[in-house]
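Forum: Protein Structure Q&A
Topic: Joint prediction for protein chains with partners

I've read a bunch of threads here and the consensus seems to be that you should model interacting components together rather than docking separate models afterwards. I'd like to see that in practice. Below is the full input, 530 residues plus whatever partners are listed. Could one of the regulars post the assembled result?
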Amino acid sequence: MFKSKIKILQLTVTLAACAFLLVPTILSILAGVTVNYFKGISSGLTLKWVYKVWELYADSIFLSMWLAICCLIVTLIIGLPAAYGLARHPGRLSRLLEEFISLPLAVPGLALALALLQLYGSMKGFRSSWTFILVGHVLYTLPFMVRSILAVLASMDLNTLEEGAATLGASPWQRFRDIVIPNAMPGILAGSLTVVTLSIGEFNLTWMLHTPYLKTLPVGLADSYASMRLEIASAYTLVFFVLIVPLLMAMQWASARAQRIAK
Amino acid sequence: MTNRNFVLACLTPLFIFSLAFLAFPLIRLFLASGESDAGWTIYLDILRKPRYLNTLVLTVVVSLATTIAALGVSTTAGMFLTRNRFRGRGVLLSVLTLPLAFPGVVIGFLIILLGGRQGLVNQLTPGHVVFAYSAIGLFLGYLYFSIPRVLLTVMAAAEKLDPALEEAARTMGASPYRVVVDVILPGLMPSLIASGAIAFATAMGAFGTAFTLATNIDVIPMVIYTEFTLSANIAMASALSIVLGIITWILLLFARSMSGSTVAAGG
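Posted by a regular:
Agreed with the consensus. Here's the joint model:
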């Protein structure tokens, strides 16, 4: 099958790239369950590092989950109607608004965090509460939600469907509830999974916005990489993988499905 | 409620949120960059002071190297995976795309496991080989998160290429090399330029990876961070953020005009 030289070369590059991405991941999983990583696997396997991580960082794991759920709710409340509004009014102004809210995809999170800190940093109650981090997460994930839903809505004939319903006497709210939401479901699902996955993994904004009492999972990870022994850092990363990889796979599946429907 | 009002009401929450937490903060950031003694000439200082200029050059060099390497690896792997169907293809594809949403800090740590003091390379080789904290480590970290991004864009374009064109070139006697240069690469060019711009922009702005790895070397995001937190030089941190933001934003806008879609930044 792989007869020609070119194919063998291509296969080699592909496998090398896979190894480059996979080997360190496996190393981190192994290091998280090895008694003494410096001595190697022969020192035995253990779950004590994972328990240790639970003792030290359980709060950060719960905070990240809580933030992800809140982020999902807020992005749905803002993003779903907004995507509908943008789909109904595909004009210049809508393009501009969509472009503007997509800025957080392009501008580094660090810059956005500095901007937020300088404007709201002096509002002590807000600055030190978890809602400040939530604002950062919503800012970063909102464009994914809006675009995901908008892509599905833009591909269907919304006008005809809504006109039909309107002549039957449906109010704008009824049409939104009974026509738009059910039809947008693939986009909503893909957007929701993306928002949750990105929120749980968000570091760049969160590192600047967090306070010592409010550590999210990735912030805790950075903390453990700097100050804990390699086994604990690895076990913590392992916990993170267990949480994020199923979400990632679901997200890729849902996004591919939404894209198929949007075509 | 009339139709028009309902649609406007739908857009209101988005409008208020992005005004309060995006537009106003960015305006504040811009104004803050001019509030030091240097005034607006602070933007010239970035080019005049060696500390900032050297950092900018290093950031651009590492990002460029990442872009070129990622294009090479991902185009080769992407073409291979598009054109060949074999057992295990799905597994390879998953391995190559799964790191897409790994946070930058985690990728930094993975590079430490490869090239740190207790890293794999240091254990396997006789000498003392530690590269995680150098420009090479940074390059590998950036390459790690660039491969999936470029691969997805290239594969989407490769699926649209017409294999008949290559067949025709071959029957007319073109060597495999000429087929790649004259048929495949021109067909992929828009997506290569687009994904190259994405990879470059992402590498320029990567903070998490640099945060874990760049203990000895400075890249722009790290300088922004230290200026803000350690030196309390808020004006310079803001100015650098603005410059970096404009660079990455223009690059991604350009990428979108080339290929029609972008894969999210981050890292």
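The CA atoms of residues 23 and 235 of chain A lie 16 Å apart.
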